[in-house]
Amino acid sequence: MTTDAGTAVRDGGRTRPTGWTAALPLLVFVALAFGIPVVALLFGAFTVRDPATKVSAFTTANMTESLRGNYLATLLGSVKLSAVVAVLGAVLGTFLAQAVVTSRFRALRESVLTASGVLANFGGVPLAFVWVGTLGNSGVITNVFGLGDAGWSLYNFWGLALVYMYFSVPLMVLVVVPALDGLKPQWREAAGNSGATAWQYWRHVGIPVLVPSLLGGVVLLFGGAFAAYATAKAMVGSTVPLVTLQIADALTGDVLIGHENIALALSLDMIVVAGLVMAVYLPLQKRSSRWLR
Amino acid sequence: MAAVTPILDTPPAVSHDRPRRPRVWRGVVLGVAALYFLVPLGASLWFAVYNEQRGFSLDVFWKIFTAEGFGKSVLLSLALAATTIAVVLALTLPAMLAVRLGAPRLRPVLEVICTLPLVVPPITFVTGIGTVLRWGPDYLAATPFWATLIAIQNETFPVVLVLAYVVLALPFVHRSLDAGLRAIDVGTLVEAARNLGASWPHVMFRVIIPNLRSAIASASFLTLALVLGEYTIAALLGYGTFPVWILTVSGSDGQLSVAVSILSLLLIWLLLLTLSSGGSKRRSSS
Prior knowledge:
The complex is a heterodimer of chains A (293) and B (286).
Chain A: H1 2-10, H2 12-15, H3 24-45, E1 47-49, E2 56-58, H4 61-66, H5 69-101, H6 106-119, H7 124-135, H8 140-144, H9 157-182, H10 185-193, H11 198-227, H12 230-236, H13 243-251, H14 262-288
Antiparallel strand pairs in A: 1-2
Chain B: H1 4-7, H2 11-17, H3 20-49, E1 50-51, E2 55-56, H4 59-66, H5 70-101, H6 107-119, H7 122-139, H8 144-151, H9 159-183, H10 186-195, H11 200-211, H12 213-229, H13 232-237, H14 242-250, H15 254-285
Antiparallel strand pairs in B: 1-2
Helix pairs in contact in B: 3-15, 4-15, 5-9, 5-12, 5-14, 6-9, 9-12, 10-11, 12-15, 14-15
């Protein structure tokens, strides 16, 4: 890659037209389409407009408000749901991936990976309705097993977690399969020959090598569940406290006078959480490539 | 290797004994996974075609196509997707080539720009967009800026959605094109073409794009899938795209919404399968 650049620079006179001017449209576009809304969001999160005088004033009131009471509960609800989905999804996804990786059937491996690629992208409204048709109040499985009388409901925290796993587990499989492939059989043989049990092999070799990928996967799953809105909206409405649902409600109007910018403050809270999560993920992604060549 | 081979005489006894236990747990894991992932598909399909009052009937799939607003919302989503793909490729491809050919120092900048949309969840992005759209009437009513704000919110073709979708698609497009560019020696290709007297548009359309065909196809498919499935931004800005229509129609007919969901899953499934088979074809030919 550096050699590409090298030749181009040496050849300066002719390749100059590509210079960085060709990147200009993209930079301008991102500055306008992404930069302006984000700046507006930041600005709005820290201002309050007096409804009478229509004058805006800088304040941290929105931010404080967004971290209190009901608003805080929705933020914590989202963090809790995402954490549960991320940890469970990572564990189950790793087991599934290991089962596929150690299988002798190539076709199984190929089909599971392809299906994972599709299901990891399957979210939003359709996902919610597929589950409503299955385990909802009049869903097929609910009726067949009479789960309704047994007190089953899909429209709560655990129901949502169950549904979110449908795209989280496949995503984890995609993340962790390359790492599991990177565990060389020789390491296992060497451990076995030195008298290590299967557990000792995993405890001292397998898991330490996998840790960066596993944590990276957890973080990715967390981010996916944290940002999800459409599935929750289509499935539970507002019965489960989630920050995305709260922001949408606040945007569509039912907030107290003087609290118009609360949605923006909540959004900023979300960006901070998501940013922290990414700050964990990116270095991990770099580290995980160390052993897995 | 040489050190390992001689010892291989003894391990078979161990490894012969070992796989039996893993095979049991492997079977359990795969079985549970198959249940978890396949049952909802089968059950929801059954939900769509069977009804206690009317029994088994495929009418619901016919009803989709005749339902109020179906055609309009699908056409809107497809038009948005096509425009988004054209815009995102026209913006990213030159920028990524520039980074490789003449401005290597821009590479980290481009990477950060193309990762940022992942950090900002769509719902927060749309709150920002909503705020900007509300600015107009307040401060700038008499300026061309306001006219622009109104124009991009046109009901029949909301450009504002294209702007948002291009931003959302950036990470995926960047990743696909990056993989494609990695596989070819852009510097040499461009240099050769230029030395032979090709003009820049010629280089672009006759040299670079044909070599990146599968990377461009995968970027386009991912963007298409993204736009066809995107609900949050369209719903909160109040536009009737396909996913928004699905949720609207679910209010009146549960069976219909499940049927549409299955169809849209099949559609995305087909798209991504085409994509992955296209990708593997390239890998094996190169």
